[in-house]
Structures are given as structure tokens and as C-alpha cells.
Amino acid sequence: MDRKKNVLIVDDEELIVSTVSRYLSARGYAVTATTLSECAMDAIETGSFDIVITDLKMQPYSGLDIIKRLRELKFGGKIVLITAFQSEVQATIEALKVGCVLEKPFSLGELLLKIQGQCDEKQAEAE
User: Fold this and answer.
1) What distance in Å separates the CA atoms of residue 10 and residue 8, rounded to the nearest whole number?
2) What letter does residue 49 receive in the DSSP assignment?
3) Relative to the CA of 61, which of 35, 44, 67, 107 has its CA 20 to 30 Å away?
């Protein structure tokens, strides 16, 4: 990676946020992480992210709320939606054209492969 990819991680489970944050930071990513969906909404308004990793089921804003806001802001990065409820929300996920869905529980290796694929895809689009 020439420059660090900026990643926003939002999940209401502290263990997921801290584990994923440490894992990605150790691999050269610049990570902003929160367990509060309202803080994530603020971050996407003011930050510049290459990748947003968001949980689906959170309060007061769901992952779908975050994705909708990213779309409104013409977010040019990639989105990874993590959920334990993929089968329940598959139609919504397809309607929003979420590029990448990762079902819980997932391994950090699986997540890294998704992120690297997402970044590689974005780089190819820019060329």
C-alpha cells in the first residue's frame, strides 16, 4: 500500500471494534473506530474514508441508515456490511447494492480478504 487506507469501523460490540481495529492498524490501515452509531454518522460527515465497515443492527442508527447517508454524501469508497442477520435482510442489502456483506461470526482473515479486494477494486476504477 502506498498510502494508508482510511477505514471507519462501527459496531455496537466493543470486542469486535477493538479486535478489528487492532488487526487492521497492525496491517497498515489508518483506523477510526466507534461503538456508537451516532458518532459514526458524525465521522462520515467530516472524515475522509476509503472503506466503511459497519454492523447492521445498531441503535439509534442502523448500518442501513449509515449506508443511506453515505450514498447521500456521494461516498466514493467501499462499504463492508457485517451482520448476523443476512438472510433476514437480503432484499434490502441487494436494493442498496452493498458491495460486500460479511456474516457473523467471521474470521479476521476473511475480513482482510474482503477489504483488500475492495481496495484493489477501487484502485482499478481510478486507473
Assistant:
1) 7
2) -
3) 107
Domain ranges of the chain: 6-119
Q: Which residue has the cell 460479511?
A: 102
- Cα(127)–Cα(122) distance, integer angstroms: 9
C-alpha cell at 61: 442508527
The class (CATH top level) of 6-119 is alpha beta
Quick check: 78 and 99 in contact, CB under 8 A?
Answer: yes
Radius of gyration of the chain (CA): 13
pLDDT value, residue 2: 64
DSSP structure class, residue 90: H
Q: What is the pTM of this model?
A: 0.82
Q: Cell numbers for 55, please give them.
A: 454492523
